[in-house]
Amino acid sequence: MSTFTSKKLLLCLTLFLFIALTAGNTHISHTFRGKDGGGGVERGVVGLDTRRSLVDENLQNSSLILAEERTRRRDPLDDFHKYTGGWNISNDHYWASVAWTAVPFFVVAGLWFVIFGLSLTLICFCYCCCPREPYGYSRTAYALSLILLIFFTVAAIVGCIVLYTGQAKFHSSTTKTLNYVVSQADTTVENLRNLSGYLGAAKRIGVDSVFLPSDVQSNIDTTITKLNSAATKLSNTTEKNSKRIDDGLDSIRLALIVIAAVMLCLAFIGFLFSVLGMQACVYFLVIFGWILVAGTFILCGIFLLAHNVVADACVSMDEWVQHPTAHTALDDVLPCVDNATAQETSSRTKDVTYKLSSMVDKVINNISNLNNPPPQLGPIYFNQSGPLLPALCNPYNADLTDRKCALGEVELQNATQVWKSYVCEINTAGICITPGRLTPIFYDQMEAAVNVTYGLYRYGPFLVDLQDCTFVRDTFSNISSRNCPSLRKHSSWIYIGLVMVSAAVMLSLIFWVIYARERRHRVYTKQFMEGTGGFQVQDKGA
Q1: Are 381 and 373 contacting, i.e. CB atoms less than 8 angstroms apart?
Q2: What's the pLDDT tens digit per position in 128-162?
């Protein structure tokens, strides 16, 4: 049987977290957990592979372009024609078209850096090489620059609040998404090992020295080895990748908190220095802020790009849920299990379930329900008597198709409870001294056999899900409905906050310079007027 294979365990999640941190190959698995007292199941999923095998081979040629309308953007690698390939993280044209949406911020960052840098250079050159007395000032310019400086300082503070709030909520959303995927992986590992344990127990099960055939036991050994290997590799990869992604999330959070704090301090201290007339400190902050604002605009573009990729991925998952068997770009992200592998595993489990049930029924018919067997039969004789023991309902026919229970048969889930009333009391020789069809030892053996059989049978829905991609569809549907809205919303908060902070601090820098100039002129003019005995000087702003 081919192994459960997969590709990049948490790659789909890392698209939401903006960092491609996963690497390496692991094995595909699935999750199944039975609910006590019923036949319901609780399903989950983690599956990964180098290629996704389609459930229906007739549909392998059917392809679906994911998020086609949303991703129709200008592609700089294709002479700025519209990109039509849909969401596809392995396509350079997709990344180029998404990156193009962030170009305005990169352009603003470049223009700001160059133009404001040249302006600072020109101001320094004029101040050093062409000094002149700062005589006369404009009251209008002075008042207006102060008002705008206050306004943009407040805007910068508001932007910092939006940025800080956005990063906190974004971190919470991404952490919840990560925890969901990790919990799915952990449950998958748990149930793969449970399935392996059931198969191992089935191999050892014997009723009155009757065991499974040797060829079946050999096949069980092979299946157990591969299931344990899949579970171990998935567990190790999940642990490694979840830690790397968690570290990446913490780094992103720390960086955004630092940016928000630095920009907030810069805006407030710059305003304070300007009002107090500390020109040297203002000019130092202007140079520092000039570089910082350029970097923040670049971050705006990066987070806008990431926001678009997240939104594209969410739309893609919505569309894939509707067409799970079509060939799409998601095949390389979270593929379905290989169909042949799932079918063989399902067939092996059904075969073991059928043979265990048949073995129990054989013992019931040939030993327990014998009437008045002679003592010479040895192990077969234990003075069994009384009402006949109901046969166990075998859930499968010999060809492993589903079978309905015949009249008088007991189902797997309640067989042990029914048989308990057929247990007799025995003497020291193990012979029944009261009516009954089972000795206590005999009953314990049959109970163990039925419990293992029922455990394997309950994996039927799980194995069906492996074949029809239900587990992938359920996971995508859950992420799309529970996580995508908050991821899209809060990632947009981050770049909106960055834009607000960048623009507000950028304009604050300009008005720091303007206000500092007007304040210096105003102070010099007042001193000049006092030195001339109150001689009136014309106000340039009047």
Answers
A1: yes
A2: 776 665 555 667 777 888 888 899 989 999 989 99
* Collapsed DSSP state (helix, strand, coil) of residue 81: strand
**533-540, long-range: CB within 8 Å, 24+ apart, which pairs?**
537/135, 537/136, 538/136, 539/136, 539/137, 539/138, 539/139, 540/136, 540/137, 540/138
Question: Which residues are bridge partners to 303 per DSSP?
Answer: none
Cα separation, 13 vs 20, in Å, equals: 9
**3-state SS, residue 372:** coil
Q: Is the pTM of this model over 0.85?
A: no
Which tokens is 463 given? 């194995």
Residue 372 structure tokens: 């008045």
| Spacing of C-alpha 327 from chain mean position | 21
Structure-token pair, residue 152:
């943009």
User: Closest Cα partner for 384 from 356, 365, 401?
Assistant: 365
Within 10 Å of residue 449's Cβ, how many Cβ atoms? Answer: 24
The residues, ordered by sequence, that sit 6+ positions from 451 with a Cβ below 8 Å of its Cβ are 416
Reported as a single tens digit per residue, the pLDDT across 285-313 is: 888 889 999 988 888 888 888 888 888 88
CA dist., res. 30 & res. 11, Å (int)? 17
The amino acid occupying position 500 is: M
pLDDT in tens, 69-110: 888 999 999 888 999 888 887 788 998 999 999 899 899 999
Question: Rounded to the nearest 10 degrees, what angle do helices 460-468 and 470-478 cross at?
Answer: 80
Number of neighbours of residue 355 by Cβ within 10 angstroms: 17
Task: Quote the CA–CA distance of 301 and 494 in Å, as a whole number.
Answer: 11
Output the CA torsion sign for 191, 314, 242, 54: positive
| Non-local CB neighbours of 29 within 8 Å, separated by 6+ positions | 4, 46, 47, 185, 188, 189, 192, 230, 231, 234
Q: How far is CA 69 from the centre of its chain?
A: 24
Question: Of 362, 342, 349, 447, whose CA–CA distance to 396 is shortest?
Answer: 349
Question: How far apart, in whole angstroms, are the C-alpha atoms of residue 308 and residue 25?
Answer: 27
Q: How far is the first Cα of the chain from the last one, in angstroms, to the nearest whole number?
A: 91
- What six digits make up the tokens of 414? 């309640």
At 139 the three-state DSSP class reads helix
Distances (CA, A) of 32 to 37, 350, 447, 460: 15, 16, 23, 10
C-beta separation of 500 from 312 below 8 A: no
Rounded to 5 degrees, what are φ and ψ at 27? -110, 150
Q: What is the CA angle 27-33-39, rounded to 5? A: 135
Q: What is the dihedral of CA 131, 135, 140, 143, to 10 degrees?
A: 80
CA–CA separation, 506 and 512 (whole Å): 10
In contact, 245 and 21? CB cutoff 8 Å: yes
pLDDT band per the 50, 70, 90 thresholds, residue 397: very high
